[in-house]
């Protein structure tokens, strides 16, 4: 992997663009930037709070999960220092950013009459709606539960689909659109549930879905992307790298990266094998080649 950018304050998101550049958010700096393969960085928008997951919508704009901040962080000697600062949490939101103008608008701050806490990751379906996770908030004393949500990009509809989840993070769709996958950070589990209609999941009784895989050893799951053949690639923390899960068997492979806080991966390029990886513990954005192509997303720019 090549280092494309350094000094980023908790890089996340990445979204591969058709011209070979990538969008990246800095959770700790509250901004969305564009990074070119030669290392040039251009500011797209100041978003405030803690912008996290990002995806291109059907209108060509980028939609951002903003977790609201709530922590202090800094890079010291190339390594991340982070501490809870709940008094700085400004509330979670879904934001829309026009890539041409950099104008950011807040689409949603609540669902079903309840405030969003810490939206984390997002994926669009082919119908033009989007699924996203809310990670819940944390303090030194404990945390609130999170959930799964579905919303429309025009700001007209949002609802909670699953509640009471420990720490939902990465989210993605199977190649056939039948399954919704989400990674849970603290339990190191990859879950799935069957999609029965836009914004609707099958009822699993007392469970949110099926457990596909559980990480081995001391590892935590972050955001994810799906390969064209259906394998799920999950950014992994503590034992830093990308965990690759076969959804048919639950078998896990691990590609190590020299960073204890690998937050996400995005696929791009003409053959879908270019990858952008966010190494947040050292503030780097990495770029390289993957052995297999990624699944094309519903919308691109």
Helix coverage percent of residues?
under 10%
Major β-sheet profile: 5 strands, antiparallel
C-alpha end-to-end distance: 24 Å
Strand content: over 45%
Radius of gyration, in Å, reads 17 Å
Global morphology: globular
**Average pLDDT taken over every residue:** 95
Tally of extended strands?
29
Order of helices and strands: EEEEEEEEEEEEEEEEEEEEEEEEEEEEE
* Low-pLDDT windows of residues: none
**Coarse structural class:** mainly beta
How many helices does DSSP assign? Answer: 0
What does this structure look like?
The strands form eight sheets. Strands 18, 19, 20, 21 and 22 form a five-stranded antiparallel β-sheet that branches. The chain has a four-stranded antiparallel β-sheet with strand order 1-29-28-27, with no helix packed on it. The two termini are 24 Å apart. The protein is an all-beta fold and 301 residues long. The protein is built from no helices and 29 strands.
Task: Write a short abstract of this structure.
With 301 residues, the chain is mostly beta strands. 0% of the residues lie in helices and 52% in strands.
What is the fold's blueprint, element by element?
Layout: E1 2-5, E2 11-16, E3 22-26, E4 31-35, E5 41-46, E6 51-56, E7 62-66, E8 71-76, E9 79-84, E10 93-97, E11 104-108, E12 110-111, E13 114-115, E14 119-124, E15 130-134, E16 146-151, E17 158-165, E18 168-173, E19 179-184, E20 189-197, E21 200-201, E22 210-214, E23 220-226, E24 232-237, E25 241-245, E26 252-256, E27 262-268, E28 274-279, E29 284-289
Antiparallel strand pairs: 1-29, 2-3, 3-4, 4-5, 6-7, 7-10, 8-9, 10-11, 12-13, 14-15, 15-16, 16-17, 18-19, 19-20, 20-21, 20-22, 23-24, 24-25, 25-26, 27-28, 28-29
